[in-house]
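Researcher: Quick sanity check before group meeting.
Model: Go ahead. Protein one:
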Amino acid sequence: MQNEPVSTPSLIAPARADGRQASQLRPITFQNHIAPYAAGSTLISWGNTRVICGVTIEENVPRWMKEQGVTGGWITAEYSMLPYSTLQRKQRDISKGKLDGRSSEIQRLIGRSIRAAIDLEKIGTRTICVDCDVLQADGGTRTAAITGARVALALAVKRLISSGKLAADPMLSGVAAVSVGMVAGRALLDLCYTEDVAAAVDLNLVMNARGEFIEIQGTGEESTFTENELAELLALGKAGVRELLAAQAAAIQQG
C-alpha cells in the first residue's frame, strides 16, 4: 500500500478580513489644499477612514499665556466626527450642549502630539488652530487625525515662511501615529473597525521621526497582556510609524 499523504499545518498566517498581512498598513493617501481658505489642509484617506485636517492662524495667543508671561505661540486642536461618518448617524456635540468625553480626549491628544512637532518659540505670538473632521470612520480616526494634522501644519508653516511672516522654519520633526492590537491572539498593525471592536488589547502609538515616543495609549479590553506581547505590539507600531513618516514627507514635498 502506498503511504497516505500527511497533512501539515500551514506556516502562513491567515490574511485579515481586508486581505492584509499582520504587519501591513492600509493604503494611505494625502490630498493637499482640500480647504482653500485654510493656511494648510489635507484630506487623509487611510483605508476607509477619511479625515480633513485644516490649519488656521490667529495673530494672538491665549490669555493664560499673557497672564503667566509665557513667550512664543500656541497650538490647539479640535476633533469632530460628522453625523454621516458612521453607519448610524452620530449626533453633533453642539446639539447635546457639550463635547463628549471621547472627542475631548482625542482633541487633547492631537494637540499634545502636534505641539511636539514644532518649536513654539519660533512661531511668534500666534495661535495655530488645528481642526480635524472625520468624514468617514473605519477605525483609527485619532491616529489618522494626528498623521494628517502634521502634514497640514507643515503646509501652513511653508505659507508663513513664503509670506515673510516667519524668519526661520519652526518645524522640529515628523510626527505620526498608528494603532496596534491583539486580535484572536495575533498582534496586528493598523486596526480597522471590525478588528478594533474585537481586540483584546488596543494600543495607540504616537512617535516622532527621531524614534522617540510622544504618547502610548494601551488598554487591555477585558483582558491582560504580557510584556512580550507589549514588545511585539511596539515593534509593529514603530515599523508602521516609519512608513507613515515617509508618506508624510512625500506629501509635504509635493506641497
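Researcher: Fine. The other one?
Model: Protein two, sequence then structure:
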Amino acid sequence: MIRLGIGGVQGRMGQAICASVASVEGIVVTGGVVREAIAAHAGDVLISDDPAELVGTIDVLVDVSTPDGVLRNLVAMRQASVPYVCGVTGLSDEHQDALMAAAVDIPVLLAPNFSVGVAAVTRILELAATLLADADVEIVETHHRRKQDAPSGTALLFADAIERARCAAAQRVHGREGVGPRQLGEMGIHSVRGGGNSGEHRILFAMDGEEVAIEHRALARSTFADGAVHAARWIAGKPPGRYTMQDVIELTVPEM
C-alpha cells in the first residue's frame, strides 16, 4: 500500500486527487500540507502546515500547492528521502534549480500537466517540429478565469519540446499588437482566460500552402487527478533522478 501525501490538499486539485485515490487500489492518502497554521487529523489523514510533520506517514508527496510552497515541501521531502511529484506551474529558475539539485538524492517528477494525453502530444510535437522544420509555430492556450499563471505550464512544456526538437531557441512572442510582420524564428504563445475551461491547447504549424494543427482539450479536472495518482504510484521505489510524465507512460515513437 502506497501512502500518499498531498501538498495543497485543501485546494481544488488536492481534493480531486483525494477523490481519484478513493477509486484506486493500492494507494491511500495519509497526509496533507496546507497553508494555514494547523496540525490536525481528518479521519486517518494528518493535515499540517509543516511538511516535515508528514515524514514517516507518507511514501510519496504530490505537490499541487503554489510556487511559494514548493521549496519548503521539496526541502522536507529531500531531507526525508521521500519521492516528490510536482504539478505546480509558474515556477522560477530558482525552483527549477532546486528540483534539479534534489533529484541527486530523491526521485523528482516535474509535471506541468498530469494528463496522459498531454504527454502524448508532447512527443508528437517533437516529431512534427522536426518534420515541419520551416513552419511558423503559434500556441494558443485557454483556461478558466481563476488560473494564476500565464502562459500555462503546459504551453511552455510544448514550446520547450518544439525548441528541443529543432535544436534552437525561439524568440517567444506573447500576444501581438501594432505594426510589425512576423519575424524569422518567432514562436507565438497566447493566453485566453475566462469561464470554467479546464484547459485547451492548440499548436499551429503554418506554412505558405498548408497548415497542421494539433489540439488537446481537457474535459474534466479528474483527468489531471487520475494522472497525478498514476505518477505517484509509478515513482514509488524509483531511484533518484529527474522524471517526466513521458517516463511514467513510457512513450516511445516507432521509427519511420
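Researcher: One line on it for the slide.
Model: The chain has two domains: 2-114+221-248, 116-217.
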